[in-house]
Design a protein that fits this description.
The structure holds two protein chains of two kinds.
Chain A (H helix, E strand, L loop, with lengths): L1 H5 L2 H6 L6 E9 L2 E6 L3 E6 L13 E7 L2 E7 H5 L10 E7 L2 E7 L1 E9 L17 E7 L2 E6 L1 H9 L4
Chain B lengths: L2 H27 L3 H22 L2 H18 L7 H22 L9 H12 L44 H28 L2 H24 L1 E3 L1 H4 L2 H12 L3 E6 L4 E3 H22 L3 H6 L6 E10 L2 E8 L6 H10 L12 H8 L20 H10 L3 E7 L3 E9 L4 E9 L2 E6 L3 E6 L5 E4 L2 E6 L2 E7 H4 L12 E7 L2 E7 L1 E9 L9 H4 E6 L5 E5 L1 H4 L1
Parallel strand pairs in B: 2-4, 9-18, 13-15
Antiparallel strand pairs in B: 1-3, 4-5, 5-7, 6-7, 8-9, 8-16, 10-14, 11-12, 12-13, 14-15, 17-18
The chains are: A alpha+beta, B alpha+beta.
């Protein structure tokens, strides 16, 4: 698909590129941005009362009551090695994980973007503390964003749970 | 026909039929051909029809071949021999595989050529005179000749219309969850009504509560299923395991009709299987060894279900060699689990030692019970279900392991207690008594802090400390909960009691120690989650 890249800019506007795209959800934690495939997420809910879970590591924030179901919420900041802005504010991204839901606390959601797959670059696994969670990097609005496999993030923090 | 839609139904009906076939085969093996063969024939015939209707050719053809063989046994053209029984067992195993393959995620047909040839060969070995007249096909009920004047033949069950329907178990789970939510909402309304002090509102709330209690009870009952639904498959497994180990066992099931919550029962299959395998592998001796020990060559293995008040006991008893203390003790000492000078372990100590992960006295790793992961799996599972484990063993005479389980997982009563700003639920099943803590009650004994209650001393456990909170400013304030589990007691100290409440137990994804500290979570009246303290992890 290097042909498409070589085209002058005017022609790209004229013609839809034939490169397939991935729909990414871009979220912020502190000064960093991350992106994950949109279809990994089921729902986004505002931050709410979280019951602390004694015995769990710092990467786990605790439990929330999501319409009668108890959902474990991961601390996005601690898990991804970044300093989150605040704990009281923010959003919880809900991920489908083995027939149940796991939440990830983030500062806010920046965008939903369709990114052509040829724009995905390589990234160093060591950029975050979770092994195997980084699948690549993309540039969005001039800012480099790490693309994560959210299931791996959850698995690294929660294990198999239950 | 839209086979996908019916595949699930086919699968569940097949399971019932296969289990019936297996059990009838076991009966046949024990010599009960009079009743076993008709049972077998009926079940295989049903499988054949269902398989053909679904277009599962492997199931249909294999059933047909089995039916042909069974027909010859039924009409006396063949007599039951060891090779024939083995062929039938293999045929049923293949049938089971064929069902699983045909109904799997990527449906396919099992290659049944070889097994069909084997069955056909067995069918054609005419071992009995072939003079049998056609009349001999009619099974003769020798045991119960119909009394004269009786109009209904004894063999024919009265045909009544079935009043049962099949429901996806998930629906019942959802229903149970919704009722759980309703219970929480009711508590909230009740609180508001009490605050308002409005008589008529309180009365209406009370009435709604009674109806809700009825609803809860009805749904709970509808979720109860008899234990035989999971026990059914055990006779066959026990037989195969015993044979592979060269042991002879008479396996009995008692209390098949005892009912347990479905979600609980689903969780029990694996632990029971572990215990049965453990008994066969480690408990039961070889026939020769048994004879030398003056015992009958055939061992007895009993699986019992029994109702005891609000709990159900599931027990596995064998008359094998028992758990040998002289083998457990050295291992326990080596691992530093007991004092070096210990010469005898109590049953309680024995349970806690053998249920440690990885602890095993088995000399060699066998395919049957793995590498010391058996008992700890059972212990963990039972504890997670809010139950407890008891072991009784007599060296040389046998072992009995009992799992005591609550009737249902879903709803129970708990004491809500506060430490600092956090609320925890303590299941009432483990609460004996509660007291206010005062300075004179706190003592030190053998270097440990204890609480004196009447004439007894109990180990003091601060819930604060267990949940990782800093100690309270004054140690001797707060409330004491005397908790008990399997004859062990301790004094759990909390800041304050909030009250008793019916709680809906929900599972959550725990990490590390949080998995053992808590047996589940529940939702409080204000909608926030609260953790349920697992008494067994405290003791």
């Amino acid at each position: 698909m290097s042909d498409a890249v070589a085209l002058p800019p005017e022609q790209i506007v004229e013609e839809e590129p034939h490169v397939p795209t991935r729909r990414l959800l871009v979220f912020n934690i502190g000064d960093s941005s991350f992106a994950c495939d949109m279809d990994s997420f089921r729902e986004i809910v505002p931050m709410q009362h979280i019951t602390r879970l004694p015995g769990a590591p710092d990467t786990v924030r605790g439990l929330i009551n999501l319409r009668g179901t108890i959902v474990t919420v991961i601390d996005g900041g601690t898990s991804l090695g970044k300093t989150a802005r605040g704990r009281a504010e923010g959003l919880i991204l809900l991920v489908d994980y083995f027939d149940r839901w796991i939440g990830i606390g983030v500062d806010d959601v920046r965008d939903i973007q369709d990114v052509p797959i040829d724009q995905f670059g390589a990234a160093d696994q060591a950029e975050i503390p979770l092994v195997g969670a980084v699948t690549g990097a993309v540039e969005i609005e001039g800012k480099r964003v790490l693309v994560l496999d959210i299931k791996t993030v959850v698995q690294q923090v929660i294990g198999l749970g239950r | 026909m839209d086979t996908g839609r019916y595949a699930k139904l086919f699968l569940s009906e097949s399971r019932e039929n296969l289990s019936e076939i297996n059990n009838a085969l076991l009966e046949l093996e024990r010599g009960g051909s009079d009743t076993a063969i008709p049972r077998l024939f009926r079940a295989v015939h049903t499988m054949k029809g269902m398989g053909a209707a679904m277009g599962y050719t492997s199931v249909g053809e294999l059933s047909h071949e089995l039916e042909t063989l069974l027909d010859k046994l039924r009409n006396g053209a063949l007599v039951v021999t060891r090779p024939i029984i083995d062929t039938l067992f293999s045929g049923v195993d293949a049938l089971e595989q064929a069902v699983d393959l045909a109904t799997g995620a990527a449906p396919q047909q099992l290659d049944v050529k070889d097994i069909m040839t084997r069955i056909r060969t067995a069918s054609s070995e005419e071992t009995a005179p072939t003079f049998t007249s056609e009349f001999a096909i009619v099974p003769v009920d020798k045991k119960a000749p119909a009394p004269s004047g009786s109009s209904a033949p004894a063999s024919q069950a009265p045909q009544k219309t079935s009043r049962h329907i099949r429901i996806d178990a998930k629906r019942l789970d959802t229903l149970m969850n919704v009722v759980g939510e309703l219970v929480i909402a009711r508590d909230r309304i009740q609180k508001i009504a009490e605050q308002l002090g409005d008589e008529s509102l309180l009365e209406a709330t009370l009435r709604a509560s009674q109806i809700l209690a009825n609803l809860q009870n009805e749904i709970m009952t509808s979720r109860m299923v008899p234990v035989w639904q999971i026990f059914e498959r055990f006779p066959r497994i026990v037989r195969d395991t015993a044979r592979s180990l060269g042991k002879e066992v008479d396996f009995k099931i008692e209390g098949r009709e005892i009912e347990l919550d479905r979600s609980m029962l689903d969780e029990m299959g694996e632990p029971v299987l572990h215990l049965l395998r453990n008994s066969l592998d480690h408990g039961v001796e070889t026939p020769d060894d048994r004879e030398k020990a003056g015992k009958p060559r055939v061992a007895t293995l009993i699986l019992t279900a029994e109702r005891d008040r609000a709990t159900v006991l599931i027990r596995v008893t064998d008359d094998g060699r028992g758990i040998d203390q002289s083998r457990v003790l050295p291992r326990a000492k080596k691992l530093g689990l007991v004092e070096p000078g210990t010469t005898k372990l109590s049953e309680q100590e024995l349970v806690s030692i053998i249920s440690r992960p990885g602890f095993s006295t088995a000399e060699k790793v066998t395919e049957i019970s793995g590498r010391g992961v058996g008992f700890d799996i059972v212990a963990t599972r039972v504890r997670a279900l809010g139950g407890s484990l008891e072991v009784h063993t007599d060296a040389g005479l046998g072992t009995s392991v009992s799992m005591r389980l609550p009737l249902t997982l879903a709803i129970s009563r708990a004491l809500l207690a506060r430490v600092d700003k956090e609320v925890y639920a303590i299941p009432l099943t483990h609460v004996l008594e509660t007291f206010s803590l005062s300075q004179p009650m706190l003592l030190e004994s053998k270097g440990r802090q204890v609480v004196a209650i009447r004439d007894d001393l109990f180990t003091a456990i601060w819930l604060r400390e267990r949940v990782g909170l800093p100690a309270a400013a004054t140690a001797a304030s707060g409330q004491v909960v005397l908790i008990e589990l399997a004859e062990r007691r301790a004094a759990l100290i909390v800041d304050e009691f909030i009250g008793q409440q019916e709680i809906v137990v929900k599972q959550f994804d725990g990490v590390n120690a949080s998995k053992t500290l808590f047996s589940g979570a529940t939702i409080l009246g204000d909608g926030s989650p609260a953790l349920i303290v697992d008494a067994s992890s405290l003791l």
